[in-house]
Structure formats: C-alpha cells, structure tokens
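Q: FlgB family protein, please. Structure only.
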Amino acid sequence: MFKNLEVFQTSFAMARHAGARQAVTAANMANADTPGYRARAMDSFRDTYTAATSEIRTTRSGHLESGGITTPPEAHFSDAEASPNGNSVSLEQEMVNSIEIQREHSRALAIYKHSLDVLRMSIGRR
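A: Structure for FlgB family protein:
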C-alpha cells in the first residue's frame, strides 16, 4: 500500500543505508588490531542520494518511476593514515562515525513515523 509513496521509499532507503554504514563501521572496529587492515568508509546518504538523483532528469512528474536509491551503497577504502603495523582504523573516528550513523537512522525513522501519522490523520484514523 505504501510502496508508491516516495517519502516512505526515501525513509526506507535512509534506514537501509544507515544499517549498511553501521555494518562497515562495526567491521572496522572489530579489526582495529588486525595488522594490515585498511579501514573502509561509506558516503553519507545525502551524498549518495544526490549522486543517484542528479543523473536522471524527468520532463514531467510520473515520467519515470523514482524510487530513491535502487542500487546498494558501496564501501570504499578510507584515506586514513596507517599505523606502523599497516592498520588504518582510528577507533575515535569510528565512534564519531557511529554516532553520525545513529542520528541518520533516527532521522529516517522520525520521517517515516511522521509521514505515517500524517497519512493516518488524513484518513481519519489516529
């Protein structure tokens, strides 16, 4: 029922993206002591969504099915400096990333909840 509403698709994509970013951050933290491990990072949802939507232009609304991001986000190697054992994970940076990701996920859930509340109020069910 809600699959055709773009606000729900976008909030779902935001939550999914935050989950993928958190998995990358967790893997980095788990390998903080692994010699030669290179930290990985993912772009923020804003950067990923902007890149995905700027490639396709429509001439009128409904011309193309827009569903936000259809391809899963990709992790890339971080440009952090490596320690003497070759590991480039900074636990401090990963904790900061984790907090940013948690806020991004909470924002996605807040958007979803608010949109659902608006939809319920419009049909008279609160």
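A: Brief note, in case it's useful. Strands lie at 40-41, 76-77.
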